[in-house]
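The methods section describes the discrete structure representation at length, but only in general terms. An entry of this sort, consisting of the sequence and the corresponding backbone structure tokens, reads as follows:
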Amino acid sequence: MKKQLVFFLASLLTCIMLTGCGTAALPGDSQAPSSVNHEEPGGQVPQPILGNQITDGTYPIQVSSSSSMFRIIDAQLTVTEGEMWAVLTLSGQGYLKLYMGTGKEALADTDDKCIYYAENDEGKYTYRVPVTALNQDINVAAWSIRKETWYDRVLVFQSDLIPEDAIKAE
């Protein structure tokens, strides 16, 4: 019995160490994301906007998600010297951490690359994520606390709420 317990604990530790981002899951556990429709009325897809094209500041921003299970109820975009990040507030408390990429990539990476939630004053889970560009698909994997698996999501940070005078002419 003692040997079985030692074997089990050794196997568990090995599994945790080999699966990236400090969690045990199999690569097949990652759920495939669906795409996000980010066409404007009239069928045009807005052009990507980079951080160096926006005046420094903090702006409310709308974020589309490929999954209704990853519902963003508030998002604030901050731009500083061409770098962008957003604080996302989710509707629920089902995700322990996010990874900027796919679930498969998260499994192969280290835990220090994961973005853990912080609770805001209302007890909502918030995540501070880098934003490479507005109006373009960004892969994000979300670690489900209950299911203990990665779920792939696609997010689009939309530029339509950014004031026109904050977007620099090219």
The mean pLDDT is 84. The CA atoms of residues 100 and 139 lie 6 Å apart. The chain is about 15% helix and 35% strand.
